[in-house]
Amino acid sequence: MTTHDLFFQLCDSDEYVIRTYRCSKFRRWFHEPVVGFLTITNKRVIFHSRSSSFTSKSLLLTEMPLEDIAGLSFYEGSTINWLLFPVLCIVSSVLMFFLDMFSFKLLINYFTALFLLIPLAFLRILGSNIISESMRNKVFDLFDRALGKSIDRNIGRYIPYARISAYVGLIFFAWRYAFPSEPDSSPSLVGMLLLLAVYVFLFVSTSGVYRRSFSLLIGSRSMKDKGIFIPGDTLQLLSTRDTTALRALGASPAEDSTRVINELGALLMDIRQLGDLGIQKWKQ
Questions:
Q1: How many helices (H) and strands (E) does the chain have?
Q2: Burial class (CB in 10 A: 0-12, 13-18, 19+), 136
Q3: For residue 119, what are the β-bridge partners?
Q4: From the CB of residue 84, how many other CB atoms can be counted at a distance below 10 Å?
Q5: pLDDT value of residue 210
Q6: Using CA atoms, how far apart are residues 172 and 109, in angstroms rounded to an integer?
Q7: Rounded distance, CA 39 to CA 5, Å?
């Protein structure tokens, strides 16, 4: 993140950015992720995030002066709420049962499962190093001509949709293997174990079920200021308002979360004790 990307104003009295960390990230299905940034200037520590939904935009900013910092506390870990797993199995199985029954076992088959898996595999290959940039552009040109308009060439934009399709395809495949469509066939024990394995895979792959958590507390010397607190607990963020940016407080670790844990204490101490020398040491 560069200075012109910041949505808050730097002080006119010689304030400048020393370092910015991407310390938390909340991934969403149909939008760009909500990223929580921790920015250290020569005067302040600022946690900030911004995002947009279909109807509005939201901003989050909390800050404190460097001289008011009293201590640091970090946590990074992983959690899985296995109590929700039986709910996933029951709901998915009931939906599949009725879908299979009302479609006369024609919709759920191996061909449909394969068809639903293809988009994700295609996008993964298209975005990998296997495909050259020129070949990738030729593929997008084909889509442009077929649709009669220019499409967005950011592959990451289409991955969430393709992932949903692939998840459904996996369930279709495992369900048909467990419960064959032939009239005199009986349920397969191996197939039911495969279906259970697919449920487990989808459960731990779904955002919000298997979560890595990042928590940060920057304590304050003064009683009037509570400091900066990133709880890493989305249950504290329930609200009827547009709180999209607030999800950065309860999000998973981002690319720089481990660096924040390793560097932040030394960075702040060097700035305090070494002044300009410390700032030059850490300045990006």
A1: 7, 8
A2: middle
A3: none
A4: 13
A5: 56
A6: 7
A7: 12
What pTM value is reported for the model? 0.55
- Among residues 148, 149, 93, 157, which one has the least CA distance to residue 119? 157
DSSP bridge partners of 146: none
Which is more confident, 11 or 170?
170
Q: Are 254 and 39 in contact (CB under 8 A)?
A: no
The pLDDT score that the predictor gives to residue 255 is 80
- Token readout for 277 is 């020398």
Tell me the C-alpha to C-alpha distance, in Å, between residue 223 and each of 40, 45, 49, 70, 157. Answer: 22, 18, 26, 11, 45
Q: What pairing do the DSSP bridges indicate for beta strands 228-230 and 210-220?
A: antiparallel
Whose tokens are 């990738």? That residue is 136
Environment class of residue 49 by beta-carbon count within 10 Å: exposed (0-12), middle (13-18) or buried (19+)?
A: buried
Q: Which residues contact 86 (CB under 8 A, 6 or more apart)?
A: none
What average pLDDT is seen over the chain? Answer: 80
Burial environment of residue 50 by CB neighbours within 10 A (0 to 12, 13 to 18, 19 or more): middle
Residue 174 CB neighbours (<10 A)? 22
Confidence band, pLDDT 50/70/90 cuts, at residue 239: very low
Reported for 60-67, long-range contacts at CB under 8 A and 24+ positions apart, including other chains, are 60/36, 60/245, 60/246, 60/248, 60/249, 61/7, 61/8, 62/228, 63/8, 63/228, 64/218, 64/220, 64/225, 64/227, 64/228, 66/40, 66/42, 66/268, 66/271, 66/272, 67/221, 67/272
